[in-house]
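Complex 415.
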Amino acid sequence: MSKRIKPNASRRAFLKYGGLTILTAAIDVTLPALNPLTSEWVTSANADSLDKFSIPGKNGLRVLNNRPLNAETLPHFLDDKITPNDRHFVRNNGLVPSFEPDRETKGWTLKIDGEVHNPLILNLEQLKRFKQFTYSLQIECGGNGRAGYDPPGKGNQWTYGAVGCSSYTGVRLGDVLRSAGLKDSAVYTGYYGSDPHLSGDPLKIPISRGTPISKAIDDHTLIVWEMNGRPLPILHGFPLRVVTPGWPGSTSIKWLKRITIRDREHDGPKMTGYSYRVPRYPVPPGAHVPKEDMRIIESMPVKSLITFPKSRLNWKLGIPLMVRGHAWAGDRSVSSVYVSIDFGANWIETSIAAPVNTFAWQNWSTLIDFRKKGYYEVWARAMDSAGVTQPMVVPGWNPKGYLNNAMHRIAITVL
Ligand SMILES: Nc1nc2c(c(=O)[nH]1)N[C@H]1C(S)=C(S)[C@@H](COP(=O)(O)O)O[C@H]1N2
Ligand SMILES: [Mo]
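Predicted structure with MTE bound:
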C-alpha cells in the first residue's frame, strides 16, 4: 500500500520565486492512513528540519510546487490558536502578481456588476466606509489530504497542512451586495482576481469561482484587506480578497477586482468539469465518473489536527503528556474531539473550547497518561454538531482527491 511520490524529479532543484532562489530537496511522501508510523514511514509532514525550504515571509512551510507556488504548513507549525501570517499555507493556480504596494492600492478598484440594480465601482477608501468586522476564519483547501488517495488524484499532494485560521478585517460581502441591490434573478457570485495565468496569456484567467448568494451574504463572508492586523500579504491576496469560511479555499478569491452576480451557477475557470467537484454517489477507487454525475463541493467536512506534540516524540514514562490541536467542521461547529492511544480501542474525551467566533476553528487539548513503556500512536477524531465524525481511514475516493478528512495520527515512544 505504500506510495512514494517524489515532488521533484531531481534530487535537488533550484526553484525561482520572486527573484529569490529557493533551495529544495526531493523528499518522500508516504501517507495512506492505514500504514503504520514506523521509522521508515517518514512523511515530509514530519520532517525534522525545513532549512532547505524557504519562501520569503514564510516559516515552517513545505514547498509542493513553485510554479504555481504552493506550500503547506507542517502540523506542529500550526500550533498557534490563530495562524500567524508566516504560517498560513499558500495555494495558487496562477502566478503571484507583482505589486508596488503604495502605488497599487491608490488606483485599486473593486467592481460589482451583473444581476444588481446599481452596479458599483469602489476604491479602497469607499469600501472601508462599510461597517468593518474582524473575525478569525478558517480556510482549508478542498484538496487538503489529497496525498492519501490511491490511485492518486492529480494535483498538489497536500498532506495535512493546507488549512489555517487567521484573523481578518474587512466588510461583509452581504452589505456591499445589498448596497448594489441584488435583483430577484441573483443566484450565484463570480469572483475575479488579477493573478496572471501560468501561460502568460493576458486573456486567460487561472481561476474564477463563486458561491450561491446565500453563502455570499452570510455574516461571516467578508471582503478583507487585513490579516492578523496587518495589510494582506501579497501571497494572500493583497490588497483585497474574499474569505468564504468553511467552504473550499478556492471560493476565497485573492487579488479581488470584480464580483459579478450571476443568474445561474457561475461557470468561470475551475468552476466546471471536475474542478472542486466530487461524485454525487460513492464510486470505487480509480473509477471514471461522467461529468454530469459530479457535484460542486460546498461546506467542508469535519476534521481535526494534532499540532502538539510533533510526531515521533520520545516521552518519559510517568509524566502526563499534553496533547492539543484544532478542529473545524465547515458550516457546522465541532461538538467533541476524542483521542485514542490504543489504535482506536478506547477513546478519551478532550476539552474543546468554543470558537472565538462562528467559522473559527476550535482548540482542543487533553492530558494523556501512558501506563507502560512502548510505542504509541495518538489518533484524533472530531464530531460535528450534526453528529458526523471523521473517518478512521481515507474516505470515499474521488477523481481529483478532494475532501480527505481522515483522522490525523502522530507517533510517540514512551521510554
Ligand atoms: N486569485 C486567486 N485566488 C485564489 C487562488 C488562486 O489561485 N488565485 N487559489 C484559491 C485556492 S484553491 C485556495 S485553497 C485559497 C488559498 O488561500 P491562501 O493562499 O491564502 O492560503 O486561495 C484561493 N484563492
Ligand atoms: Mo484550494
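The CA atoms of residues 51 and 129 lie 44 Å apart.
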